[in-house]
Amino acid sequence: MSDAQLLEEPQITYDVEETRHEIKTERCGIITVFVMGSTKGMTDNTPVFLTVHDMGCNHTEFHSFTEHPSMARIKSRSVFIHVEIPGQEHDAPDLPVGHNFPYIGIQNC
C-alpha cells in the first residue's frame, strides 16, 4: 500500500433534497444558493440557518452535518440556505483574470 492510499478517506454522498437558486446582485454578480427545507408555510418562528462554506469546498460540506441523525428534529422544522462562494461551485471553471472577488468588506451584495 502506498502512502497516498493510506491518506485517502472514503467519499460519502448524501441524497439531499435542495433547490438551486441564482441571485443576481449589483456588486457581487451572480451568487448561487441552495435551499434545504420547505419555504412554504414559513413563519417568523421558523429557524433559518445561513451557511457559507470554507474556501476550496462547496455547500455539500454541510450535508454530513444536516443529515446526521442528531439533526433530524431540527432539520424537519428548519430551512437551511447554503451560499456558494463564486468559483467554488462543483466543477466550476477558474474565475477570469481580474475577477472582482467579494470580500467581507463588501456590503449589500
Structural features, described:
With 109 residues, the protein is an alpha+beta fold. The chain has one domain. It is built from three helices and four strands; from the N terminus they run αβββααβ. A hairpin with a 3-residue loop joins β1 and β2 (29-36). The longest helix is centred in the first third of the chain and has 5 residues, at 3-7. It is globular and about 45 Å long. The model has no long low-confidence stretch (mean pLDDT 80).
- Shape by Cα distribution: globular
Strand order across the largest sheet: 1-2-4-3
Please state the structural category: alpha+beta
Major sheet, described briefly? Answer: 4 strands, mixed
Order of helices and strands: HEEEHHE
Mean pLDDT: 80
Strand content: 15-25%
Treating each run of at least 4 consecutive H or I residues as one helix, how many helices? 3
Distance between the termini: 49 Å
How many domains would you count in the coordinates?
1
Helix content: 10-25%
Total strands: the figure is 4
Low-confidence stretches: none
Radius of gyration: 17 Å
